[in-house]
């Protein structure tokens, strides 16, 4: 099981961060991702594979004017 933003997620294990973000409706251009306490560079989203026990935080940026 993987924890995303404090909630258990069972279907994310084995997916890349990019795959998880796309399936969950996130725009990867407008989020920051932290995995196990470290920021994941956007350039690594396509190659970083989520593993059992990972703790992930996804923060969305909201624009305003």
Overall domain count: 1
The name of the CATH topology is Ubiquitin-like (UB roll)
What characteristic shape results from the CA principal axes?
A: globular
Strands of the biggest beta sheet: in what spatial order? Answer: 2-1-5-3-4
What is the CATH superfamily?
Beta-grasp domain
- Taking all residues together, what is the mean pLDDT? 94
% residues in beta strands: 25-35%
What is the rounded Rg?
11 Å
Give the end-to-end Cα distance, rounded to a whole number of Å. Answer: 39 Å
Top-tier CATH class: Alpha Beta
Helix content: 10-25%
User: Which architecture would the CATH scheme give at its second level?
Assistant: Roll
Element order: H for helix, E for strand: EEHEEE
Poorly predicted runs: none
Query: Helix/strand/pairing class, anyone?
Result: mainly beta
Please report the number of helical segments: 1
Largest sheet: 5 strands, mixed
Number of strands: 5
């Amino acid at each position: 099981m993987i924890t995303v933003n404090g909630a258990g997620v069972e279907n994310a294990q084995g997916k890349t961060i990019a795959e998880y973000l796309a399936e969950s409706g996130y725009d990867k251009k407008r989020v920051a991702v932290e995995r196990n306490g470290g920021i994941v560079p956007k350039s690594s989203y396509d190659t970083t594979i989520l593993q059992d026990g990972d703790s992930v935080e996804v923060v969305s940026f909201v624009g305003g004017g």
